[in-house]
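Ticket #4471: complex job returned nothing on first submit. Input attached below:
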Amino acid sequence: MSTELDMTQYLDLFLQEADEQLEILEQETLRLETDASVERLQIIFRAAHTLKGSSRAMGFQRFAQLTHEMENVLDRLRNNELALATEIADALLACIDTLGRMVTSIRAGQGDEAATEALVTQLQDFLGIAPPRKSSSAADPVEAGNVFQTRLREEHAVWLRAARGQKEVYHARFRLVPDCVMKFVRAFMAISILQEQGELLVCIPDRERLEEEDFDREFELFVHNEDHLEAVLQRLHNLSEVEWCDYTIWEDPTGPESSMHLADETEVLVEKSDSPGKGLADAQMGSAAAMPPIPGMTTPTNAPIVAAANDVSRKPENGQTVRVDVTRLDNLMNLVGELVIDRTRIAQIGADLSAKYSDTHIDALAETVGHIARITSDLQDQLMKARMMPIETVFNRFPRVVRDLAQKLGKEIKLDLVGGETELDRSVIEVIGDPLLHIIRNSLDHGLESPEERELLGKSRQGNIVVSARHQENHIIIEIIDDGRGIDTARIKEKAVERGLVSREAADRLTDKEILQFIFASGLSTATTVSEVSGRGVGMDIVKSNIQKLGGLIDLETTAGQGTRLTLRLPLTLAIIRGLLVRVSGVVYVVPLGSVIETLLIHKKQIHSVNQREVIVIRGMTTPLIRMRTIFTTRNFIADDATDASYVVIVGIAEQRVGLVVDSLIGEQEVVIKSLSRFCGDVRGVSGATILGDGNVALIVDVNGVVTR
Amino acid sequence: MSNEVETFSEQQTVVFSLGSESYGIDIFRVNEIIRLREITPIPRTETHLRGLVNLRGKTIPVVDLRARLLLDIVADSETTRIIVVDTDLGHVGIVVDEVREVITLETSQIEPTPALVTDFDTDYVKGVARIEAGLITLLDLDKALAA
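Support reply: We reran it on our side without changes. The output follows.
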């Protein structure tokens, strides 16, 4: 059937879908351990089912087989015939990992290569140990024998009786061949046949489950139909891949105590329209509202599924979305960036002209320029928002990592993720994941105690980690809080002195907060054992420098015995910043406003010399000075005669404050960051370039690079 | 892009002058030729890297080829131009005193560099071409721009 089609064109779609479904699978399986609701199991089942279908259609046998076995296990789980145990969850996660590897292999053009035999056997073993549950609810799917057991529920029998009052109701029953691949297509064709000259009243299983092929081989349809019974039966027999079918006048069973079992959901279709498509949508909405809970079932599985799916899975049901290639967004961003530059230029030209001439045309120009400026700002805003993604996409990696690591370390951990909907620019999202993971790993490894230790301390056995994200003005604040043992500042101090990072005398004069900063120095680790996860002391310094490269700040607080809190502060976007324009050695530079604390005009009398370094004292704080002219030298620059007064820009990095002495201050401006050409290489103290309103290039100061010599 | 082999029997060359001497580069490497404009210097870089210019919203590094080839520095003039070329590291501009013309050279016109003719490292030189007006030193662009 499908083997003749050229499947390569569908490969991309398959891979995309596989990625999505695998992510759902993993997320929901992880959540199963705390909340094993039937809704969740249904979602997981459907994901596995979808993957089975598409991988089969694409010819990936191993993939399909593994998902098929998963499906079997999940089916038992959702029907309450198998109890969820940690080893089952572990096995499912292992399967998901293997499927992920297969996807990578397929992507690389090597087919679904993976060792699946062990997992398949393990999954089959689970099915073996499942005790058959005697339940009044689940209907046994027809196994051996040709006995077709109808699954009509009482409520709908009532409705059908009413329908029968108007016209005869017919009952069509079907059993598909065992290896039927496109079950829904067959069901749909049966429905189509019956709807010619007729009207579909009830179908079992309901439309949604039919579409998702969430049934074994049997389905039944209840209809009104004007045609002769034999004619319809003939048409139904002509359907391919139907092992058995029957079409009879429906006989009302004598009572609810008869051989009817309450089983799968049925759906009442109030279909009057000609187009089954429209009816389907209406009917689904109708069914979601109208489904009463099935008596006898231990958990509601009907309408709640549609509603629950909304909050259990995070897909936006209401909004319409469009898939956009990320490179297109990047290109748009570049274009808008150039527009912003030209807007500033035009505004400047307009202002210059207005100053010089008085003319109605120039007034009109000024007005139009103002309008363009506003529109460009809006455009910029909207595009930035389009590039924003919820931090959830980063958070999603954490549960799995925490679970695996906690298991490995023998610790019990509860991970809370708060504020997943907080949005960040795509460029920040890409880089923020690894540093956060590192911090979490540290916390797990060193911060949180073992369950026994915690009990001795009177704490809960379960250690808690909370990762939260929120907006604050133009920034995003991410916090990682644990209730572990906190950081021992005395030990840090000892290690720092030991490693020669600071002298004993200097160390004794440091405040606790200052001592904590040593965490971010490379080579310092107070871990007594080095694990493969952390402990070598080369992590936090990289984390800090990565955060700073993003223009962010990282800070930490700790209370011995109670826990630690790490706070990251990041700008919302990397592409455009507000800058302070200054002049140094005749050249204009841009200092990112995010780093600027204040600007001063000082008299040379205020400059003191301490240890051969220039400092000033502001409000009791001693602030070292850096003369930018010595760092940013310009060839052939001849300075004006030195004046008594100097402009100083006070910049802050974490706890440090430094004063940058510049020649003059020019003003504030929003600038589009452009990277320095690769040809220039790394220039210390310069993080990028931009184009000013006058069309000239200005360099953006890397405050961190300037301050750390 | 680099080390192109002369498989063509002819080669189109952009001829420009640095001081009194004429030089040529392969036209396929040339992106555009622009007038001299404000160059923002980059601190703490080699002398021959003059800085960055704005080319329609893009920041392009500009190299002073005279300084690079260790010729005497000459002041910019009305005829000074920036030739924007393609390199593996993106677009780079080279400052030249005057852009003369674009000519088509037959391979037969190109001779290997005679030693002692040029007063800088002959590594940069691919050959010498003889035309009516005189000699053109053909530059190996990548070697000339390499750090």
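Residues 170 and 250 of chain A are 5 Å apart (CA to CA). Closing as resolved unless it happens again.
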